[in-house]
């Protein structure tokens, strides 16, 4: 167990003794005793420190047990305390006087309070209002109840002399404390103002960044929208052109198909029977325009054949609407 933990338990026990809560004081003193036992088992334990804290435990226990009315146990604890070296010190005698006051042993308590000035010099402590209350008033009480009137009067005069300076010191301490508190409040206020300012700056920067992001987003979206609209218009134009071209092509194909059907209906399906002449006819469109061949007439002993072009291209040879006549299987130009 560490020494700071032991000191912490001692302070808690002492505070409960000061407010006369002896049951809780005993509870914490038991925990203190366990800590001291654990400390003594450590390799780096200091015997003088453990003996002093053990003595402090015994005198605090004696005071608590006396306050609970367990006088025999309290007397035994005090006897153990008196066997320690700490009892011989000024601090030890002052601590013992608190138990002696509770036990009604005024003479012994008055004797112990004789070491008060020595203890104050040893610790370099001045007589503050707290020390006057806890030390000098108790010293005055035990001397008065012990019948030492002269000593009690001397203590009362000492209290009167030191009270003014104690009040002055108390006021100075309060002023310093108020100054420290005020300084702390100023620091906290300045820190809070810095925090608020930084938070405000952060908010402004955040809002500016948000606005900038929104502007960039709007501009980019506007440009993308314009591109999409242009692409949509181009696509629509191309689609309209394609639809128009397709419609025109379908219309032309329909017209050509109708014209071809008309032409085919005009082409003879039966060839004349001319002795010594084999005949065959074919029709091949040129640029989707048809050239066709058909019979004009057939007379006895001869046959007249007509070539017709329904397109814009002319027949180079033998010419448009020019007839060829074959007679007796020996064709010649008519």
Account of the 3D structure:
The protein has 334 residues and is α+β, with helices and mostly antiparallel strands. The protein is 70% helix and 8% strand. It has a four-stranded antiparallel beta sheet with strand order 1-2-3-4. The C terminus is likely disordered.
Summarize the structure.
With 334 residues, the chain is an alpha+beta fold. It has helices at 3-18, 22-40, 47-67, 71-82, 90-103, 106-113, 116-123, 129-145, 149-266; strands spanning 291-299, 302-309, 323-327, 330-333.
Number of strands: 4
Looking at how many chains there are and whether they match, the oligomeric state comes to single chain
Shape: rod-shaped
Query: What is the C-alpha radius of gyration, as a whole number of Å?
Result: 65 Å
Layout of SSEs?
Elements: H1 3-18, H2 22-40, H3 47-67, H4 71-82, H5 90-103, H6 106-113, H7 116-123, H8 129-145, H9 149-266, E1 291-299, E2 302-309, E3 323-327, E4 330-333
Antiparallel strand pairs: 1-2, 2-3, 3-4
Helix pairs in contact: 1-2, 1-3, 2-3, 3-4, 3-5, 5-6, 6-8, 8-9
Task: Give keywords.
334 residues; alpha+beta; four-stranded antiparallel sheet; 9 helices; 4 strands; rod-shaped; disordered C terminus
